[in-house]
Batch of 4 targets.
Target 1
Amino acid sequence: MEKNIEELTLLLMYLTSWEEEGYAADETGMLTKAKFKTCWKGYSFDIINKLMDEKFLYFSKHKNKTVSLTPEGEELARKLITKYIK
């Protein structure tokens, strides 16, 4: 059940996210412009922390209110759409 809650939380975060521009470090450590899916942290902090530990989320520029999905988090969320919605 816990895994389903984590998955559904990530899916809801993805579905309610918006796109922001910022900078991210590439493989060499150079900063490049990037777009991020960002959402509000209106979910269980325990679940958010687990998703961060699993590298599906990271803090956005407004650390106290929002988080951003990592590319891996976005990919998993798209797969979860077919698991839970279709």
Note: Residues 2-60 form one domain.
Target 2
Amino acid sequence: MRHISKFHKDEDGLSTVEYIIILILIAVVAIGAWRNFGESVEYQVHESTGEVNSL
């Protein structure tokens, strides 16, 4: 019974799990932002190409 209560009170690994969750959330947001940025750049390049070709 002591072993179970000892593990129940042990919070050493908790901060590691929290950091991993935060890093995953940051990665998801960064991937989403990078994807939107890439689509925006691709649109601008296509628009510029069309304008240059019309000259």
Note: The mean pLDDT is 84.
Target 3
Amino acid sequence: MLDSDLAKLYSVSTKRLNEQVKRNPKRFPVDFMFQLTLVEAQNLRSQFATSSFGGRRYLPYAFTENGVAMLSSVL
């Protein structure tokens, strides 16, 4: 799941969710989450037909099932 989707699920802003992830780096190893590449983010944006104006400044993070479970304990 993407960080923005999880932020909605946990009723927090995406910025706050990512702050907590960055404050707890030992809880989120490589197999728990990863950051999308620019190409992946552009492909995702084109699949959902969203505008390239406005929106995010940073590439989104994607969380695995284990990452989502760990995120629930951090938030």
Note: DSSP finds four helices and two strands in the chain.
Target 4
Amino acid sequence: MALPKRRHAIARRNKRRSHWKPRLPALTRCPQCAQAIVPHRVCPHCGTYRGRQILTIASKDKKSP
């Protein structure tokens, strides 16, 4: 196998990797509860997808003593 004759500089390596940055996920608003959700997924807050109730979300009520 061929081996490089000289070492590549760190700047040259970093130029090559300049497009390797993580991207923010695309978010949309849920039409039912207006929370930010990932598109084409069931809303984790209200449990709806495309206007239909898919999941039953249990409410988190705190019990008072």
Note: The first strand starts at residue 28 and ends at 29.
